[in-house]
Design brief:
The chain is mainly β and 314 residues long. It has two domains: 6-218, Sandwich (Jelly Rolls); 231-312, Jelly Rolls (Sandwich), CATH 2.60.120. It is 13% helix and 36% strand. It has six helices and 22 strands. The chain has helices spanning 24-29, 60-67, 69-72, 101-107, 138-147, 212-218, and strands at 6-8, 11-14, 38-44, 82-89, 95-97, 115-122, 127-132, 155-159, 165-168, 174-176, 180-187, 193-196, 231-234, 237-242, 246-251, 254-258, 266-270, 274-278, 281-285, 290-293, 300-304, 307-312. Strand 14 (237-242) and strand 15 form a beta hairpin. The longest helix has 10 residues, at 138-147. The chain is globular and about 60 Å long.
């Protein structure tokens, strides 16, 4: 018998782990956040200690152990390839970069980290750090980062608004600005190298740890990208990204078939009230909630005013 969609219960990063976080995940999506500085809601996660779980309390690695390739698709069991978050940036995040697979494996014994952001909400004038200014060299970046505030002048900033999608390959310098709530799909990795944290200190006067040498080592100073252009697939369905590690689609006012793909799992996140139905069952999701769609699953009927669908690229 095929596996039914699995509604996921998230884990959270909050408080001192996300000093830049806020409470918009509660305000916008009725999330039961643990702290008024909750920055990350990990909707689908196999990261140790931050695993998402099913309604019965089984964490994602346990589900993978139970169902194997029927859940994930062949070859995606270990390491589980993707991590999905909702982020609330009340304040600006640190300026950072992530290594690619080769560097992360050699130095950290982990996966690298390529990611993408879909902007869910943004205050007027909100912006991202999205690369460095054209012509900046690694030596200039290293010297400025060691000096601290001097690095601010080397950063490339872009204004953003809700509905836009930004691809951040490994090696691209980036930071989420304050006043932004976004959806993040990424490789399942927690390797982050910080350049700069805006001279902030905690209540004891301590600055956050930086990793300047490693950060500069992995940076691609030539990365100059723009917001992704969506491609229509059918009425109410668009392709946002089709990259090496993941594929991202958007639905709006969609009422139609979502065909099962036995090669891979998918993850559906509702942006408004959403109903999945299949032979013998149905699942309702409210905005900001996520279901894991198994590889060995049903063909589904999807009704939604808005949703995002991520899958590992095959």
């Amino acid at each position: 018998m095929p596996l039914a969609p699995i509604p996921m219960t998230p884990s959270y990063r909050f408080g001192g782990m996300t000093p830049w976080g806020g409470n918009d995940l509660r305000t916008l999506y009725r999330k039961d956040i643990p702290d008024a500085r909750t920055g990350e809601c990990l909707e689908m996660s196999a990261i140790p200690g931050l695993e998402s779980r099913d309604a019965a309390g089984h964490i994602l690695p346990e589900l993978i152990e139970t169902y194997g390739g029927r859940l994930t698709g062949p070859g995606f069991e270990k390491p589980f390839p993707l991590l999905l978050k909702l982020l609330d940036a009340k304040d600006t995040l640190s300026v950072q970069v992530h290594p690619d697979d080769a560097y992360a494996a050699r130095v950290e014994n982990k996966l690298g980290k390529t990611e993408a952001w879909h902007i869910l909400a943004a205050v007027p004038g909100a912006e991202l750090v999205y690369g460095v200014q054209a012509g900046v060299t690694k030596k200039e970046l290293l010297d400025a980062s060691r000096a601290g505030k001097a690095v601010e002048g080397l950063l490339r900033r872009v204004k953003v608004k809700a509905g836009e999608t930004y691809y951040i390959p490994a090696g691209m310098v980036h930071a989420i600005g304050g006043g932004i709530v976004l959806y993040e799909i990424q490789q399942s990795s927690d390797v982050t190298y910080r350049f700069y944290d805006w001279e902030r200190t905690d209540k004891n006067g301590n600055k956050r740890e930086l990793h300047i040498d490693k950060a500069v080592d992995v940076t691609d100073v030539h990365a100059q990208l723009t917001a992704a252009k969506e491609t229509p697939l059918e009425k109410g369905r668009w392709l946002l990204l089709h990259e090496k590690y993941f594929t991202l689609e958007r639905f709006a006012d969609f009422d139609g078939r979502l065909k099962n793909d036995r090669r891979r799992f998918s993850v559906l996140t509702a942006l408004s009230d959403t109903v999945l139905s299949w032979a013998g069952g149905s699942l309702s999701l409210t905005a900001g909630h996520t279901a894991l769609l198994p590889a060995d699953g049903y063909d589904l009927h999807l009704q939604t005013a808005g949703a995002l669908l991520s899958s590992p690229t095959v």
